[in-house]
Amino acid sequence: MLTLDHIDLGDPNLFVESVPHEAFALLRREDPVHWNEEPDGPGFWAVTRYEDIRHVHRAVDVYSSEIGGTSLEDLDQEQIEARKSMLDMDPPRHDELRGLIARRFTPRAVSVWEEQIRTVTRGVLDRALPMGEFDFVREVSSEIPMQVFAEILGIPQGERREIIEIGDRLLGNQDPEFAVTETADEHRNLPFSHPAALEMFEFGRRLAAERRREPGNDIITQLAFEPLTQQEFDTYFVLLATAGNETTRHTITHGLLALLEHPEEMARLRADAALGAKAADEMLRWATPVHHFRRTAAKDTVLAGTAIGAGDKVTTWLVSGNRDETVFEHPDRFVVDRTPNPHVAFGPGGIHHCMGAHLARLEIRIAFEELLARSVDIELTGSPERLRSNFFNGIKRLPVKVTR
Known about the structure:
By secondary structure, the chain is an alpha+beta fold. The chain has one domain: CATH 1.10.630.10. Helix content is about 45%, strand content about 10%. It contains 17 helices and twelve strands. It has helices at about 20-30, 50-60, 75-85, 95-100, 105-110, 115-130, 135-140, 145-155, 160-170, 195-215, 220-225, 230-245, 245-260, 265-270, 275-285, 320, 355-375, and strands at about 35, 45, 65, 135, 290-295, 300-305, 305-310, 315, 375-380, 385, 395, 400-404. β6 and β7 form a beta hairpin.
C-alpha cells in the first residue's frame, strides 16, 4: 500500500513507467504541502493542490523565481547568474525581457499563422502517413511545432532538426540516453549543466550575426538589435528554441496516445471537428508537459496551514493541479469536450504564464483536425518510450502503424 513515506518526487525514476498519479492523489488528500527529503540536498516543499499552486505562482513577492532559479538543482550564486533566463527572473527585469516579444504571441498576432500552420501540418502528414509504420514523435509531433516556430524565430528550415536534436540532449539531461555526467562539473554554469547548451549558444549567435547583416521579420532579428548582454541573448535563445518545440511536441504525442487509449473519444472528435479547441485543452490538461516548477520562499510564510521558512525550496506540481478533484469533475477521465477546463498546463496565471500558449493551442487543434480528417486508422506497434524526467512529461518515441 502506498504511503507518504514511499513518495520521493525528487527521483526521476518515479516517472519512467508513467506519471505517479496515485501518489499525487494521496498528497492532495493527506499532505498537500508536503516536505520531500533529498539525499543530496536540503529538501523541498511539494505543493499539489490547484488553488495552492495558483497562489504560489501569483505571489511573486513571497515565492521568488530569481533567488534560487526554477529547477530543483541547488545552485550557488555564480551558477544562478550564469544560467538565468527570463523564467528565472522576478520583476522588473523579467517584465522588460518578456515585453520585447510578447506582442508576437497575442491571440490576434498568432491567428495570422493559422493557414501557415495548416499548410505545414498537411505537408508533414502527407510525408509521414504513407510510410505506414514510423515513429510518430520524429515524423509528426516534433515536426509540426518546429517547422512553424522555425519561421517565427528565424531558423532556416534545413537546420530545424539540429535544434530539435540539441534540445533533446539539453532538456533530457536526467535520461541516460542524453546525460553527460562525466563532464557535469566542467559545465556547472551552463543550463542543465549540459555541454549541449554551448552548441545552442553558438547556433543562436551565428543566426544573430547573420540577421545583423541581413535583417528579417523574425524574433532573432529583433533580439539581435536589442541592448541585451551576451548572457541574456544566449539564455533567451535557448528558452525560445526549446520551449517553442518541446512542450507542444509532448502534448501532441500524449494527445494521440490518449485518443488511441480512448477510441470512443477519438470517434467523437473525428465526427465533430467543432470540438477541436476543447479537445486541445483537454490534451494539455491530460499531458501537462511540464510536471513542476520551483520557487524559493523570499520570506517566512504560511501556505495551507503549513509554515514555510525563508530560503526553502517550494515546488508546484502542475501535473497534480490538473487532476485536482475539487476543480475537475472525474479528473482521471479523458473527455474531449470537457467544460469547464481551467487547466494549468501553461502555468496558473501570474507573470510567468506561458507566452506561447495561444500558438500551442492552435498547433494542437490543427494537428488533430488534419490528422483525423484523413481516412486512416492508427494503432500502436510498441510501447511508448518515456523520458526519464521529473520535470518534463515527455515521450521520446511512439511507434505507430497507419493503414487506409
